[in-house]
Amino acid sequence: MTGTRVAVAGTFGPLHDGHRNLLETALKYGDEGLIVGLTSDAFARASRTRDVPPFDRRRAALETAFGDLDEWGREVEIRRLTDEHGIVSDEPDIDALVVSPETAPELAAINDLRRENGFDPIEGIVAPYVLAEDGERISSTRIVRGEIDEHGRVRN
Amino acid sequence: MTGTRVAVAGTFGPLHDGHRNLLETALKYGDEGLIVGLTSDAFARASRTRDVPPFDRRRAALETAFGDLDEWGREVEIRRLTDEHGIVSDEPDIDALVVSPETAPELAAINDLRRENGFDPIEGIVAPYVLAEDGERISSTRIVRGEIDEHGRVRN
Description:
Chains A, B: This is Pantetheine-phosphate adenylyltransferase. Chains A, B: Residues 8-145 form the Cytidyltransferase-like domain. Chains A, B: Keywords: Nucleotidyltransferase, Transferase. Two copies of one chain form a homodimer. Chain A has a single domain, classed as HUPs (Rossmann fold). Chain A is 31% helix and 16% strand. Chain A has five helices and five strands. Chain A has helices at 17-29, 41-46, 55-69, 107-116, 140-144; strands spanning 6-10, 34-39, 76-81, 96-99, 123-126. The longest helix of chain A is centred in the middle third of the chain and has 15 residues, at 55-69. The A-B interface holds A 1-2, 4, 25, 28-29, 31, 71-72, 96, 101, 104-105, 107-108, 111, 115, 121-129, 131 and B 1-2, 4, 25, 28-29, 31, 71-72, 96, 101, 104-105, 107-108, 111, 115, 121-129, 131. Strand 5 (123-126) of chain A pairs antiparallel with strand 5 of chain B, so a sheet runs across the interface.
């Protein structure tokens, strides 16, 4: 590989093994560094009814996860994300966006937006879903609901 | 990057700049080699009404394109693909599948199939569309119809 700078974005709270897989994929491919868009509290809460941990707590959990997962010594920059297409639409200097399968269909629109802004289109890197013990996807919503823990173990 | 073996599949005929972008993306990310699934004539023609060049001609064009695009000296293996999920469902030893945005939604189902076969799920790498001079996508269908050439130039 020769120089891939990746972006990844999300709310990442509560952090779970699906997020960790996304972060590990970003580390693996991002040999020229990672920009992480972490949603602001206002932006994260506007689209959700569930509880979202405060920004600083989500950032600290992200930093711990990167510390655990980074085998490559990548450069990681965390930025506060205040709207849906921040970073991908205003950062010319990225090569790829790491997404979950659920966000993959937005890649074409993201590249339309980049072209309108005069930026090169980027690749999407789609990390596979991580399944919980019960075969369903791990999600923060399921964790907050008390169905599973952050590693996808079913709570009884 | 540390060891990514990629697969890419298609009919690739007539070969155009959208295909070349897909092949270049596969070369860039595939530092542990590429497996290329090239559709058999029977499989390629079953789903299409347009003319499809014969397998050997499509393979020769692919080999020329790889020769032009490979800056990295990658190992490339071309296999005949006779059904929709060949390679991704029967090849355990790949890390990622390079796809166009139109195929990206199939990644989740591909990984379900891999899990059923006891294989690890793989990443998807989504190469952006390449636009023709008129702002629409380049496609083999448009070339065969005589609207554009293989580089997306509008034919008058």
